[in-house]
Amino acid sequence: MIVFDLRCRQAHIFEAWFGSSAAFEDQQARGLLVCPICGDDDIVKAVMAPNVAAKGNSRSVPALRADAPTPPALDPDTMKAALHALAQAQAQVLEKSQWVGRAFADRARAMHVGETAATPIHGETTLAEAKALVEEGVPIAALPLPVVPPDTVN
């Protein structure tokens, strides 16, 4: 596995793991990489500091990147509470929504054109399918946190 710092057009920096450099290039070429902050799909590798192992008797200090924005200072308890509140809000919304799995794009499109009754649904779709739905005017939104499908044991 290899980790890369990635950057979108909005200059958001995020980290992603790949099986190899070729795997990154393949996913980039197929448009599978998306900024988790803004949804931009124009993703490139960001400048990274090399990860050099420290001597056994010294502590390593992470290098600061000159192009990295300074994040707001959030203590771990505040961040944990915010994520917990977000997870609870998402769970509450999904209680009234039906899991449709990979049929999401087809079901959303059918509801949009009036072939089936409009009901709250959630499921899986590819980035290309999601873009097509948006271009067709189908109202969709990405969930902020991952969802474990109902038939999956985690």
Largest sheet: 3 strands, antiparallel
- The helix/strand order is EEHEHEHEH
- Detail the poorly predicted runs: none
Widest sheet: strand ordering? 2-1-3
Number of strands: 5
Gross geometry = globular
Distance between the termini: 22 Å
Binned strand content? 5-15%
Question: What does the secondary structure layout of this molecule look like, with pairings?
Answer:
Blueprint (H helix, E strand, L loop, with lengths): L1 E6 L5 E6 L2 H9 L14 E2 L30 H20 L2 E4 L2 H9 L8 E3 L3 H9 L19
Offer a concise description of the structure.
The protein is 31% helix and 14% strand. The protein has 154 residues and is of the alpha+beta class.
Q: What does this protein look like?
A:
- The chain is α+β, with helices and mostly antiparallel strands and 154 residues long.
- Helices cover 31% and strands 14% of the residues.
- The chain contains 4 helices and 5 strands.
- The protein has helices at residues 21-29, 76-95, 104-112, 127-135; strands at 2-7, 13-18, 44-45, 98-101, 121-123.
- Strands 2-1-3 form a 3-stranded antiparallel sheet, covered by helices on one side. The chain has a two-stranded parallel ribbon with strand order 4-5.
- Strand 1 (2-7) and strand 2 (13-18) form a beta hairpin.
- The longest helix has 20 residues, at 76-95.
- The radius of gyration is 20 Å and the shape is globular.
- It starts with a strand and ends in a 19-residue tail after the last helix.
- The relative contact order is 0.11.
